[in-house]
Amino acid sequence: MKQCWIQSQRSLVFFVCALLTLNGPAMAQSSFQWPANIKAAVSLAYDDALDSQLDVAIPALNKHRLKASFYLQLSNPSVGARMAEWRAAALGGHELGNHTLFHQCSGAQPDRAWVQAHRDLESTSVAQMKDQILLANAMLYAIDGKRARTFTAPCGDRRARGVNYLDSIKDDFVAIKAGAGSAVTPSMAALDLHAVNVHAPVGMSGKQLIDLVKAAAAQGTMLNLTFHGVGGDYLTTSRQAHEELLAYLSTNRDTIWTDTFLNIATFVQTQRAPK
Questions:
Q1: pLDDT at position 181, please?
Q2: Which residues have CB under 8 Å from 81's CB, separation 6+?
Q3: Is residue 24 part of a domain?
Q4: CB-CB contact of 147 with 141 (8 Å)
Q5: SUPFAM superfamilies of this UniProt entry (predicted)?
Q6: How many domains does the chain have?
Q7: CATH code at 173?
Q8: Which one of 7, 173, 181, 215 is most buried, counting C-beta atoms within 10 A?
Q9: Contact 92, 62 (CB under 8 A)
């Protein structure tokens, strides 16, 4: 009798553990909540420190009272030549994020003939990447006086000499964007804040951009868009499409939370903290 009782208890424990394993992600997803009445968060990011971002994107964002993240490639001439404007953007509530000093990408990937040999991830070590990324943090601190920072990997590439260099800098950033993927986060429960997929909406219309916002709201998750040129420069999104997106986000600010990636990631961290 005692042996049967022990066996039944073991079976019960196994059943409960299996149930928790199967339902854990769903339970975690259902327990995640955005601030009151918010259906989704939207992170608007702008890479490379381009002139069109200062000339077009930031004035448009300010007009609609929306905050965004600007990932500065610190060797870009616009950083030095227009530093007062970048500093003003930070003072106005926009985030200045780390996009490395020299925008190293892998020259081994398709359509990467533009990658310079001395800035090729295929010949750059993890230690070298970490050194210059931390130096970039120090330079950003000199611009905006802030310590908390997020990072976007140039080209979405994660490996230096075949080794994931992001693992070496995780402790230095609240969150990291790296790798192309779905613009809409499929699950807040499964989201790795140090490997957030991004989508570059090159040439997309305003309607297409707005449809992505609606998709994120339907799932209750997050939308990550990474722009480059706006109405100019390269990998361009038209000024009209950008304006239509911002107008929609502004009109629906009561249910769509548009903010810096740093602020959104910090909120996600607090939701995951033990209660």
A1: 83
A2: none
A3: no
A4: yes
A5: Glycoside hydrolase/deacetylase (SSF88713)
A6: 1
A7: 3.20.20.370
A8: 173
A9: yes
